[in-house]
Description:
By secondary structure, this protein is α/β, with parallel strands linked by helices. It has helices spanning 28-34, 89-101, 111-118, 124-135, 139-149, 152-176, 188-217, 231-239, 282-297, 313-321, 359-368, 385-406, 411-429, 435-443; strands at 6-9, 18-24, 36-37, 48-56, 59-69, 80-86, 105-106, 219-224, 257-263, 266-272, 300-306, 327-332, 347-349.
Amino acid sequence: MEEDTIVAISTSMGVGAISIIRLSGKDAISIANSIFKGPDLTKVKSHTINYGYIMDKDEIIDEVLVSVMLTPKTYTTEDVVEINCHGGISTTNKVLALTIKHGARLAEPGEFTKRAFLNGRINLIEAEAVSDLISSQSEKQRKMAINGLNGRLTKIVEDIVTKITNIIANIEVNIDYPEYEDAIEVTPEYLKAELENIESDLVKLKSNSEMGKIIKKGLDIALIGRPNVGKSSLLNAFLNEDKAIVTDISGTTRDLIEAQTQINGIAVNLIDTAGIRESNNLIEQLGITKSKELINTADLIILVLNNNEELTPLDKELLSSITNKKSIIFVNKNDLPTKIDTTGLDIVKGNTKTLDGIEPLINKITEMYNLDKLESKDNTYLSNIRQINLVEEALKDITSAIQDTDNQIPVDMLEIHLRSAWEKLRSLIGDTYEDELIDTLFKNFCLGK
């Protein structure tokens, strides 16, 4: 355990019913008791709530409820005190300042969860899930974070680590104690079967990672096209509100307009771009440049074309620019006579004037990303680049080991790949780690968590 006692405000700052100031460490109870008028906090039972006042000498600062939780059954496994005071910036900051004056240190971002990890209460996957749970904005994000927090993903990784451990152990016994008859004989056939089983587990984890990224981060969808084809109207139709200004004047949208919605419980960031055309207006030119850049950075491009107009050279240029990109061609204004030639193009037709006019487009997005099949309750997904990279590297090691088995490489040489995969998966759950990685990871947390 850490020697010093940390403190932070655990609730959002502002006007509210309550604010919570949390302390953790060996002096948490004595510090809180030194500014508390009420029951002696050093003598109360663990996990009790105690009524009283926070005092600055003889001055009453606030009427409070103080929760006392004794080690080891706390979030950090240290003594933890939570002071529940009335919400408000002035009162909350005054109570915080008093705890610091009496010996606490202001916690760094994520330091409470960092202590929970370092003290062995949670592993690294569970710690990252805490951050994901706090920042979740959709029901699927929340459920995925819970799966990381409740140990489902940890159990899968630990099972794979155990399988690799058993293989390494059997190899070591075969090499060092060949006379030991009860040991499993590590034949090439046995080894390949075991490694392919592990490879299958890692492939499943990796293949699900794309789903995890979609659930966690959502989709950035850029609406591009010439002026007046209906991009802003499409944005408004997605949101069912007038977010973007819609006129018949070309160049109305000169900068990016972003709006958030959900499709099948997945967060979607819609980006309405400036109509792409030749322009002498400097501001419009900057907007057009941004629009073109989004073609390379957005998760999905929706190219909007006008059903009532023939394809222009600029339309054809845009069609060429989205080749090999994740994209959908939406032919708008299908309520008007068809003049466009879409021979050979995979298109979705609709219009932005009626509520069901973009339903085919939403169905296409759902089908493209399997949004209706993304489960966050019964499946476990890797949720960040660190986790995904470690699994990918471990998978490469296992695949190399399988290839070495096919090439009849000696078992003791092949063990190098196994140990490498074993170390990477242990790093995934935090059995091994670098201090710099841990510091960086927890800096992304909010204060008080």
